[in-house]
Every structure is written in C-alpha cells, then in structure tokens.
Prior knowledge:
Elements: H1 2-5, E1 8-13, H2 22-43, E2 47-55, E3 58-65, H3 86-96, E4 100-105, E5 111-118, E6 121-122, E7 128-129
Parallel strand pairs: 1-2
Antiparallel strand pairs: 2-3, 3-5, 4-5, 6-7
Helix pairs in contact: 2-3
Amino acid sequence: xxxxxxxxxxxxxxxxxxxxxxxxxxxxxxxxxxxxxxxxxxxxxxxxxxxxxxxxxxxxxxxxxxxxxxxxxxxxxxxxxxxxxxxxxxxxxxxxxxxxxxxxxxxxxxxxxxxxxxxxxxxxxxxxxx
Length: 130
C-alpha cells in the first residue's frame, strides 16, 4: 500500500489468530485491500491502522483512518446514483463464510470498519467444530 498508493499502514495484532482456511484467507485479504483502497480514494489521509485479533472462534479485523469520514447510510446508494460495488461485494463474500462487515463513520471523524470472519477449528480427531 505504501509503494503503490502512498498509504502508510500500521498493522497491529493481539493474540496470534488461528490460520484461516484458504477461502477465508483470500476473502480476508481482499476485504482489507478494498478497505485500504477506499481510504486512499476517499479519506484524504496518508495513514491507516489495521488491527487483527481473535475472539473465540472468529478473527476480527479493524481498519481505521482519521480522515474525512462520511454518512454510512449513503453507502446503500444504487450504482446509478454514485454507489459502488466494492463494499457490497465484500459483504456478500463475508456473508457466504458466515462473517460480517460493520462500518462506523461520521463526517470529519474518520472511519472504522470491523470485519468478522469465523475460524473453523478441528479437534484432535480431525472433526470440524464451529
């Protein structure tokens, strides 16, 4: 992000999260990338923060900036009225994994996005537990 978009990213983590499955890892990467690109396009700042933690059986990723902010209700605009497919697409992909995306923002106060992705855990016998 620094090289390509001139966006510095502070990345922090708590407890080392469990490894995500292949599909979940790809969705996590694509989601964080899309959120950071939105910071570049809309926030008007040169830095963002990414926090990755695990709670019970989910990985939680927060992407935050201290930029312009916006009114989240405006995200639901149809494409013909200036809405886009980026966040819609993220929500759809996360939904297929049982995950979610929540956005908190207000004009002049920056934006915080919370991504929740379930972690599949196998027991010692190899049985899948959720």
